[in-house]
Structures are given as C-alpha cells and as structure tokens.
Amino acid sequence: MDPSRIIDSFPAPSFRGAQEQALRDIRDAFADGNDVVLVRAPTGSGKSLLARAIAGSAATVDETSPAQATDAYYTTPQVSQLDDVAEDDLLSDLKIIRGKSNYNCIIRGEEETPVDRAPCARKRGFDCSVRHRCPYFSDRAIASNRQIAAMTLAYFMQTAGSDVFRKRDVVVVDEAHGLAEWAEMYATIDLKPRTVPVWDDIGVPDVAAAGDPVERASRFAEALVGVCKREKDELLTKSELTPEEAARRDRLQELIGELQWFVEDYRDPQSPTTWVVDQHDGEGSPIAIKPLDPAKYLKHTVWDRGNKFALLSATILNKAAFCRSVGLDPSKVALVDVEHTFPVENRPLYDVTQGKMTYEHRDETLPKIARLAVRLMAKHPDEKGLIHCHSYAIQAELRRRLAEMGLGNRVRGHDRDDRNVELETWKATDRPEVFLSVKMEEALDLKGDLCRWQVLCKAPYLNTNDSRVARRLEDGQWAWYRRAALRTVIQACGRVVRAPDDYGDTYVADSSLLQLFDKTRTDMPDWFAAQVDRMTKPDLPEFDPVAAGGRGGNAGNAPGGTANLGGSTSRSSGASGGGSGSRRGPGSSGSRAGGSGGTSSSGSGGRKSGGSSGGSDDSGRSNHPLSDVWGE
Fold first, then answer.
1. What pLDDT score does 627 carry?
2. Which residues contact 108 (CB under 8 A, 6 or more apart)?
3. Closest to 350 (Cα-Cα) out of 374, 366, 372, 371
4. Residue 496 carries which DSSP code?
5. How far is residue 367's CA from residue 404's CA, in Å, rounded to a whole number?
6. Which of 72, 95, 111, 529 could form a disulfide with 58 if both were Cys (CB 3.0 to 4.6 A apart)?
7. How far is the C-alpha of 214 from the C-alpha of 276, rounded, in Å?
8. Which residue spans traverse the membrane (predicted)?
9. Is 98 in contact with 154 (CB distance < 8 Å)?
10. Taking the domains of the chain in order of start, what are their residue ranges?
11. Topology of the domain covering 344-548
12. CA-based angle 43:49:51, to the nearest 5?
C-alpha cells in the first residue's frame, strides 16, 4: 500500500464538504503504520468515493514480487449499497461480482434458469460450449483480474480460501458498523424444515432436556452430518439432476460444512468462540446454533484476506468495543472522524414522546402514538412521511388504527415479501403518503421530497429472548446493548437528510429513547450529540383526522378499515385545518421543499439477524446468502 496515492485516487473532479481533509487524515493514519483505519463518516460524506480513493492506494503488479498481494477489494453488507456503486459513473472501474443465483444461463432453453441451477450444475461431466460467455463466469474472471473487485460481504466471506479471489493488498469494508453482528449471523446455523432437507428423516431432540444444551446440540450435529452425507451421496450417483435436486444437493453440502465447522470449533479448547443454542418449543422443534464473539470466523473470512483495511461507517461508536467485537488489536487501529457538513438546524429532532413502548407498556402507549401520527399528518399535509415501526406487530396495529380514523388512503405499508415493491411504489408517488416501515433504518436514501418527516416509534433495543443477547446481558454487557440501539437510531435519523441543502424533521415518540440518549452520551458522535442537545417540543395541530387527510383534507375512508395500497385515490387541492401547508426554509419545522428521488433496498438478500422485542421480523432466511458461490 502507498498511502501517498490516496488523495490522487479520489475519483470525482473536485472535493466537497470535508472529503479532502478526511482523505488527508486517512492517508496519515495508514502512513503511521496502522493496519486498520476506522473511518467514522456521517451521512452525505460520500463514503463510496472515499472508499475508491483508499482502494487506489493498493500495491500494483508492477510494484511487487509475484508472491506479494496486490490490488483491492471493496465490500459492503448492503445489496443496495452495491447497486448504488454499480450506477455511479465515478466508480465505473470497480468490477462488481455477485453470487451465481443473480445470473441466468445463456444456453438455449435455459435462459430463465439461474446459473447455480443451470445444466453445468445439474449434469455430471457437462461440457459447456459457451462458458466463456457465461455472465457469471465472465464477471468473475474480470473481477478477479481487475484492480478493484466489488462484492457483497456475504460473497466476500464465502470466497475465503478461493483460488480465484485470493488475498489482496487493501480491503475496504463500507457500512462496517455491524461487522461482528453480520459475522454472527452468517455463522449461525438454523436447523428447521425449510433449511434441513432431511428434516422428516431425523428425530430432533430437546437439546435442553438434560446437561449442556450446546454439548447435546453438537452430538445431534454429528449425527445429522451422517444423514446429510448419505442423502448427498445418493444424489451424486445420478448422472443428471433436476433443478430441485441440484438445490437439495447444494443445501446438503452447505449444511454439512456448517455443522462440521461448528463441531470442530466447539470441541477446540483454544477457540475463543462461545456457542449458544435456541430451541423454544422442545423436542421436534427448530434449533438455532449461534456463535458469540466470532473473532475466529472473521479471521478466516476477512482479516486473512488483506494487508491493510479501511472500515467505513457513520456509527462505529466506540473504538475499543468495536475492536474487541471483531478480534482486532486496538493498538494497530486508528479512528478517523469525518466532519458532518449538514447544518444541524436542517436535521432537527423533536420530542413528542407519548410513553414507553416496552412490551408491558405498549398497549397503553401505542394508541397515543396513533393519535400523534394524525397530528403529524396535519402538521405535514403536503409532505411524505415515514414511521419506523420497529416490528410488524406495531406496524399492523398502527395501520389498523389509522384506517379506522379514516386515514387509510394516506397510509402505505409492506409485509416481508413485498417490502421493496411497496417501498419503491411509495417513493415514486407524489402524494403525501405516510409509509409504515419495518427494519428500514439503514441503506435507505430519502433525499428531498421523497420524505420530509419521520417518526421513531420505538427504541430499537435488541430482543432479549435471543440467546446471544441474553448471554451478553448475563455477563453485564449493558453498554454494548445500549450502543446497538443507539447505532440503529443514528442510522434511522440519517434517512431523510441526504445533502447539505436537504432538510427533514425527526420525531421521537418513545420515551425510552430519551433514556437511551442520556445513557449513551459518551458514545455519541459530536454531530449527533448536537442534534440531541437542540431537541425541542414542537407545536402541533390539535387532533383532527380530516385535517390529517392531506391534500384537500379528505381522509378517504378505506373500505373495511384497510389502508389503500394502490395509491390511486384522488384528492382536491388545498389543505384544511391546523396544517402548515406553506413551504418553509431549512431549519423550520413543517412543510419544506426540494430534492429528488433515490433508490435503495436493505438487507443482504439472505439470513437476517435476531429479531427485536415486540413482534419483530421472524421470517428467517429464505435463501442463505452464502449458498450460491461455489458449486463449480
């Protein structure tokens, strides 16, 4: 790595905001001998451009011997972040590679077949005459030879040990704040009918019935490996498989690897990993085997993959705690803080707390938040809003109550299967609809008039029923627990203000958030602490569903109390009653102008982390994010 090249590698024609100073600080941190530099860069810093500049400092083939690592990786856990990179002309020299399931076969008659289910994956000895033109293998070949290869964190981790994607000189991880949690999530083994092809052929014990649940789970894992191997070997005797059989074979192989890794790590007395097991319904029910402190897993899948690392995020809150969680030596890690260039008055926080949203208080508080939402709709009659519901249970109850008040036509929601479709439909409309979201605190770009106000409905504490969370709290790790919630809050606050001249209001509805701010003050970035310090109580209109109906004051009763998802109900012009229909400038509460659309979707397309208390997304994994890389 040559840190002196970082500034010259910046891909834009000019710097904006604090970018030039940030790159100077990053350059100096690497020049001082640090192996890892944490870059705490707030929303709007242009982290992808900073990442490209850092990657440009990697050693080249001309500068090194054949045995030395060269070039760079760019990786991010967010699929949407990778999509943004693909669409950015300034980042066109990053070659993106995705998993096989994202590409279709080009053989005649197989054009709708994903590459991981194509004839080359189904037929023994199949000689593909067009492999050189295969979109997956072509992209992979180009990425493996390009100076900067870009991929999701899931793909990056799965290619550890690959002869194609070997160790490189520089690795840049964007949105790196959740690296430990992502590693735990990827290493978690979910055993249930949907993920275990031989589920009906095995007897699932109650692992907590006697002795150590983890020990009993390891014995069950060893037995399950034997059953999976026999089933896989039987499939391998066939000369040709159906697509379904190919998927079954691949899942069996993946499951065998997961279980063997768990048993080996659990029985290794030198391993730093602590394993915990969840099985809520006893014998015959699903089992989740989860690692804590996955430093060993990260060493193999991340830290052994490069010489120097840059980890970028707005919410790496505590350097020492972060380093402990991912297995890094803090003495070899530097933290660079990037100045926030968005005026604090453009991103105000407002205290509209209605009470606690903990499980025992929710029945009392949630109706108050529903009435608050009506008043906020009247405050913003011509502007789109977002309510972070935290869980589908909260979302459903808010949606029902707002529909009963006649506001169904101004409210849009989503479920687990249509979240991206409904999000994009909401973003595309120019009507002042309010979107009730679940788990959209990150990787969502709502610049300009896409959204001018949002509500934090509940403090996003992790689910204490999750064995990983419970174990840490038993060990007294309350500071970790609160930092995780604060991190999510800060991410959420960054959804609606995306540029220095953008502006939007964030309303705090759960009084537990005020306690969270008090207890995490020392972990807050200065720019977020400034927002908290300026927090005030706003003047809101009286409760009036008619005024909250938006344009024309028509709440538009939805038949049967159901919100209209189609977005086709017309409204007349002219807001009525209590709202602030006028456009006002930055720094004032209420309706504002400006901005244009953007696109984003959250998640890695695969396994999700543990849920949150009060009805969180518990859909599990529909497709394991690491399952489609190999199978050559």
1. 36
2. none
3. 372
4. S
5. 12
6. 72
7. 6
8. none
9. no
10. 4-93+147-179+295-337, 193-285, 344-548
11. Rossmann fold (3.40.50)
12. 95
Is residue 573 over pLDDT 90? no
* Rounded alpha-carbon distances, angstroms, from residue 279 to 260, 351, 456, 559, 589: 20, 40, 32, 42, 48
Question: Closest Cα to residue 562, out of 411, 366, 368, 377?
Answer: 411
Strand residue runs (E) in 217-258: none
CA-wise closest residue to 353 among 507, 505, 535, 534: 507
β-pairing, 349-351 vs 148-152, is unpaired
Extract the tokens encoding 454: 């949002």
When pLDDT is averaged across residues 42-66 and rounded to a whole number, the result is 91
Report pLDDT for 205.
92
pLDDT at 67: 87
Single-letter code of the amino acid located at 439: K
Q: Which pairs count as long-range contacts for 328-334, CB under 8 Å and 24+ apart, including other chains?
A: 328/36, 328/303, 332/33, 332/34, 332/35, 332/36, 333/34, 333/35, 333/36, 333/37, 333/38, 334/29, 334/32, 334/34, 334/36, 334/37, 334/38
Q: Which residues contact 274 (CB under 8 A, 6 or more apart)?
A: 291, 292, 293, 471
Residue-wise pLDDT tens digits, 490-516: 999 999 998 889 999 999 999 999 999
What is the value of pTM for the model shown? Answer: 0.80
Of 221, 275, 286, 308, give the one whose Cα is nearest residue 30: 308
Letter for the amino acid at 489? V
Encode pLDDT of 170-206 as tens digits: 999 999 998 998 888 888 999 999 999 999 888 999 9
CB 333 within 8 A of CB 36: yes
Confidence of residue 550 (pLDDT cuts 50, 70, 90): low
The residues pairing with 613 across neighbouring beta strands, listed in sequence order, are none
Q: Show the tokens assigned to 435.
A: 């979107």
Token readout for 591 is 């309706």
Task: State in words which class domain 4-93+147-179+295-337 has.
Answer: alpha beta
With beta carbons less than 8 A apart as the criterion, state whether 525 and 42 touch: yes
How far is residue 121's CA from residue 632's CA, in Å, rounded to a whole number?
7
How confident is residue 311, by pLDDT bands cut at 50, 70 and 90? Answer: very high
